[in-house]
Amino acid sequence: MATLSYLNKRVLVVDDQRPFLILLRGIMNNLGATSVVVVQNGESAVAACRQEKFDIIISDLHLGSDKKNGYQLLEELRVRKLVKATTIYMMVSADSDRPMVLGSIEKQPDGYIIKPFSQSQLHNRLAKAYQKRQTLQHIYQKIMDGDNASAIEECRNLIRSGNRYSKYCLSILLDLLWREGRNEEALQLLNSISDAKPLPWINIALARTHLYLGNIPDAMLLASRVAAQKLYAVEGLDIMAQCRVKRNELDEALKTIQTSLNLAPFSLTRQFLGCEIARLAGDFEMAKNCCQAILEQSKKSVHRSVTHLCNYVRSILDAASKAEDKKIRNRYHQEAMLVLQRNRNDELLSRTKESFDYNIFEELIGARINLIDGKLLEAKRALNATQYELRQRFEEYPMALAPDSLTLMSDLGEFEEASQLLMEMRSSNLPVDPNLQYLINNIEHRQNEIRENYNKYNRAGISQYAEGQYEAAYQSFLSAQELAPMNTGVALNLLQCLIKLMEKMQKPDQPLIMKCRQTYRMVDGMRLPESHQTKFDSIKDKVKSYLEHR
Predict the structure, then answer these.
(1) Where is the Response regulatory domain (predicted)?
(2) Are 488 and 532 in contact (CB under 8 A)?
(3) How many CB atoms lie under 10 A from the CB of residue 352?
């Protein structure tokens, strides 16, 4: 069995408190380490790991109130592959607060040690972690290389050998099988090792596997057993919440995921799940709070993205759009604008590599607020101006801004533009997180519901117009416009129809002239697609003459 010698090991120590940093360096020197690098924050640790691959990293959990913490550092180093398959990552903390401890353990460091501790205690933890890493290094390496199939075979071989780490290797194997969608294999494996009183972690693995296979009653039963215990309770609650969603027990699912979030809030996956369930249950305030937590937790992590800021602002507007009380709706609007103001100079924006323009984002959010308040023309003018600016400034559409444009297009009834943008989003490399997927699905669902009837009325109007049935065509176009209130195509069709109706009048018909003026304002001054512009140019003078002389 491999014995840990520190003589040839490169060690990185990360702690924001200089006295403890010096103490830890002294301990590692006493243990025989001659190469010990010390840094006081997560960013410096990442920079150090870009320079060299360390054998041992010892990091404090808390690295400053506004800095990357220890488990965010661990995750970034692994995602960016700045550590070796054999690197030991030891988490150190004086914090025994349950949410923070659970948040750290969920990232699976090689060890977690609570201050104060002795030199011998630290050595014992490091030695155990070293032995495990050395034994499983081939599995870890294949996982790092993305070769899950080979990693699965390595796991099976090690388990068959009866190695002392077989139990731990089993958990790695199950995770790999789930990732590859080989859930039936996972179930067979678990059934082969479970007995009359299986351990809690096996029960939770069984519950998760049954959930993936759609065996909801079995998943629910096993998860509820685990949730009643202290160990793995949070994982049990997560699975219970998902099972209740499958059963359409949304209120109960909401209570369950809220309990889980209260116990262990420092998980982006759990916050995304909370957000999803909250929306399904109609609790848009909770969905907003989850989006805020996702933003705050991701800012200093490898998952930082301007998309999380956008999603948070969008979640506020979602809550506003569902509020029936005008005062509550205005309060949400003010909150959205305040978040925009506070984050204008955020470091996140200066560091992002995503195509993004904060001014345009603010304009789009302002347009959405106008839309919620019923100011459709103002919303359409802002949408029209921002789309022209985006197409002029960027070679490819900035996908971080696409959801707000898409929402406006859909709600205003500009289905053709929305369909085109949806196609661009699908073909882009934009990471689709659960929040973005919810938005896309929601918009597609609304479009499919409305567009079929819209097309029916619009086509009927076109056919009736061609046959000279102008009154019938006018009514059909009005019906289409009720479904798509600011659609440019139907507005132009209405203007054509209104001209024909007014040509037949002996004296001005004020309701028709008022409708003509209102419809004309919807397209006048807009930057239109070429086909629409040609059509508008052909009727513009005639429309203006009716409006000026009558």
Answers:
(1) 10-130
(2) yes
(3) 16
